[in-house]
């Protein structure tokens, strides 16, 4: 009659265990939800290692980190030029961070030359930052939309009505 076994306890204790089970279920669902979050994360940048030499153009909507040598044009969302990198060609990206060497025109919404940067060519940008120690030889031109103004700049002395497209200088 006076047993401490749970079998003999009144009904409210059984109800107390039901909310615990329901409380555990949402936790399990939230745990199941978390693993699906990482695939939505932004993929890592493509890295071109320092021993890689590419001849040709590169085009992506993602991010590229160049540590090697590229002879050709590069178009990307974010381009990071490593200290050991050399790019000979035009660079077009939303964000450009230059730690290495570029020989050619640079177009970007945000362009940043770090202290180790060496640029020989024109820079067309919306915003620019040049750290002390960076080497730069060329001209700098600010444009509200530097990415769509392809063909202006160095080729500007040959005006064509189709190339103007409402961006009168």
Structure description:
With 169 residues, the protein is an alpha/beta fold. Helix content is 16%, strand content 37%. It contains 2 helices and 14 strands. The protein has helices at residues 11-33, 161-164, and strands spanning 46-48, 53-55, 58-59, 63-66, 69-71, 74-81, 86-88, 91-98, 101-103, 106-113, 118-120, 123-130, 135-137, 140-142. The strands form 2 sheets. Strands 1, 3, 4, 6, 8, 10, 12 and 14 form an 8-stranded parallel β-sheet that branches. The longest helix has 23 residues, at 11-33. The radius of gyration is 29 Å and the shape is globular. The protein starts with 10 loop residues before the first helix and ends in a 5-residue tail after the last helix. The model is unreliable at 150-169 (pLDDT under 50).
Topology:
Elements: H1 11-33, E1 46-48, E2 53-55, E3 58-59, E4 63-66, E5 69-71, E6 74-81, E7 86-88, E8 91-98, E9 101-103, E10 106-113, E11 118-120, E12 123-130, E13 135-137, E14 140-142, H2 161-164
Parallel strand pairs: 1-4, 2-5, 3-6, 4-6, 5-7, 6-8, 7-9, 8-10, 9-11, 10-12, 11-13, 12-14
């Amino acid at each position: 009659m006076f047993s401490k076994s749970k079998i003999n306890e009144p009904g409210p204790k059984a109800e107390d265990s039901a909310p615990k089970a329901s409380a555990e279920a949402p936790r399990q669902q939230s745990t199941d939800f978390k693993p699906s979050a990482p695939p939505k994360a932004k993929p890592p940048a493509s890295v071109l290692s320092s021993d890689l030499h590419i001849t040709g153009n590169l085009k992506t909507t993602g991010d590229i980190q160049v540590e090697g040598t590229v002879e050709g044009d590069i178009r990307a969302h974010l381009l990071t030029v490593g200290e050991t990198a050399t790019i000979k060609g035009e660079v077009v990206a939303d964000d450009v961070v230059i730690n290495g060497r570029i020989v050619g025109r640079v177009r970007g919404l945000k362009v940043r030359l770090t202290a180790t940067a060496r640029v020989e060519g024109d820079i067309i940008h919306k915003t620019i930052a040049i750290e002390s120690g960076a080497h730069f030889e060329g001209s700098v031109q600010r444009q509200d939309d530097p990415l769509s103004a392809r063909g202006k700049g160095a080729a500007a002395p040959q005006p064509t009505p189709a190339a103007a497209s409402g961006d009168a200088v």
